[in-house]
Specification:
The protein is of the alpha/beta class. It has eight helices and twelve strands. Strand 1, helix 1 and strand 2 form a beta-alpha-beta unit. Helix 2 packs parallel to helix 3, helix 6 packs across helix 7 and helix 6 crosses helix 8. The longest helix is centred in the middle third of the chain and has 15 residues. This is Response regulator transcription factor.
């Protein structure tokens, strides 16, 4: 799950980024409204965390322009505690949820997962493909009731494939799901993670569609 944080408070932004990465999100961060508006419009994200009180651009204006351009990415807005007016205006402008500062990282993660599930038409945090189950909230994978131990990157790779089970997922999509924008991306690592998953799930679990990407088969 790839998210964007738009927050000018660098300490808070760093705490959010580190905390969400521990929750197995892939995170990009923008310190200005201008950078955040550009990334939100040009890059793919599963969700965006947007502070309304940005110094260079009004967060509400950024949100309105995204929605006017039919940009449907779920947006969680951050507001000052007790600022009910900002919450109401933000929701009316197209925000999907709000959170007042200060907050707990675990709550941010839970709200983001809920927004992403709704965007994908999922009521449950558990993804299923045949007998394979992946619990996004608990970061656990089971097959036939038996736990399968995965590394963080293997988990993210499998989660991306399970969100599109039966469909082809390109290497570019997997790279976006695994790595932040400022990370030194290497497509060869995707092949490594897929090979590891095949050893743990079965050689036929993930099909290589040459020239296109990978497809998860029903387990």
């Amino acid at each position: 799950m790839r998210v964007l944080i738009i927050e000018d408070d660098r300490t808070l932004s760093a705490q959010l980024k580190q905390g969400l990465e521990r929750e197995l999100f892939t995170v990009d961060a923008a310190a200005t409204g201008e950078d955040g508006a550009y990334l939100g419009a040009e890059e793919f994200y599963d969700a965006i965390v947007l502070d309304l009180g940005l110094p260079d651009r009004d967060g509400l204006d950024i949100l309105k322009k995204w929605r006017a351009a039919d940009q449907k990415t779920p947006v969680l807005i951050l507001t000052a505690r007790g600022d009910w007016h900002a919450k109401v205006v933000g929701l009316n402008a197209g925000a999907d949820d709000y959170l007042a500062k200060p907050f707990e990282i675990a709550e941010v993660a839970a709200r983001l997962r809920a927004l992403i599930r709704r965007a994908h038409g999922q009521a449950s945090p558990i993804l299923r493909c045949g007998g394979l189950e992946l619990d996004l909230a608990a970061a656990e994978v089971r097959r036939g009731g038996q736990a399968i131990r995965l590394t963080a990157q293997e988990f993210k790779t499998l989660a991306c494939l399970m969100r599109h089970a039966g469909s082809i997922v390109s290497q570019a999509e997997l790279i976006d799901a695994l790595y932040a924008q400022d990370f030194d991306r290497d497509s060869n690592t995707i092949e490594v993670f897929v090979a590891r998953l095949r050893r743990k799930l079965g050689a036929d679990a993930i099909e290589t569609v040459r020239g296109f990407g990978y497809r998860l088969r029903s387990q």
